Structures are given as structure tokens and as C-alpha cells.
Amino acid sequence: MAVTKKKESNPPITLDYHAVKKSALILRAINHKLRQQILQLINESGQLTVTEIYVKLRLEQSVASQHLAILRRSNIVKTTREGKFIWYTVNHDRLNEIEQFIKSLLG
């Protein structure tokens, strides 16, 4: 005859899975070698246009634009429109938030 052990009552899981998914997308945005290079390049220059980025990194324009869109959706870069140009700058406040989040995860 099998004896079953009485289950202990565990607290409910209260994770906000939507927030978890969003956090993972933000971390994934900066955990990519090319996007890290783009961030470094923008940071060193202060601000750059997509044209300056793809020329300096020798990329196709569409590739640079796709990666910038990912960084922009994660609020890691900010944009400013001046006439027909869109200037990209690093959002240092956001990077500091991400750094603090990572430190809290790693203890």
C-alpha cells in the first residue's frame, strides 16, 4: 500500500508574467554583440544618425535600423528629430535602471 506524504501548503505564485516577459526583452536587447557596439558608438559620439551608424560599423542600413528599433523599444536609446534627420542618443538613466536591476538579481 502506497503512503502519500501530506503536502505542505505553499504560497501562491504571484509573478507578473507579462512583466517577466517585458524584462526579458529588455535584457535581450542589450545582450547582443552588435547592439552593444551600436550603443558604444553612440555613447562615444554623443549622438548619431542611422546613416552615421551603418557607415561606421559597415552594416546594411536595414540591419542598423532594425537593431536601433529594438534598442528604442526598450528605451535604451532616445531619438530626436531635426528636419529629416533622427538623432540617436544613449538613455543613461535607463541603462542605470537596468544595471541596478541586474545587480539585484545577482545579489
Number of distinct beta strands: 3
The proportion of strand residues reads: 5-15%
For the record, the count of structural domains works out to 1
CATH homologous superfamily annotation: Winged helix-like DNA-binding domain superfamily/Winged helix DNA-binding domain
CATH class: Mainly Alpha
User: What is the residue-mean pLDDT, rounded to a whole number?
Assistant: 95
Element pattern in H and E: HHEHHEEH
CATH domain fold name = Arc Repressor Mutant, subunit A
Shape assignment:
elongated
Distance between the termini: 46 Å
Low-pLDDT runs: none
Q: What would you call the structural class?
A: alpha+beta
What do these coordinates show?
- The protein has a single domain, classed as Winged helix-like DNA-binding domain superfamily/Winged helix DNA-binding domain (Arc Repressor Mutant, subunit A).
- Helix content is 59%, strand content 13%.
- It has five helices and three strands, in the order ααβααββα.
- The chain has a three-stranded antiparallel beta sheet with strand order 1-3-2.
- The protein is α+β, with helices and mostly antiparallel strands.
- Keywords: DNA-binding, Transcription, Transcription regulation.
- It comes from Lacibacter cauensis.
- InterPro entries: ArsR-like_HTH, HTH_ArsR_DNA-bd_dom, Metal_resp_trans_reg, WH-like_DNA-bd_sf, WH_DNA-bd_sf.
Which features does this protein show?
107 residues, alpha+beta, Arc Repressor Mutant, subunit A, 5 helices, 3 strands, Metal_resp_trans_reg
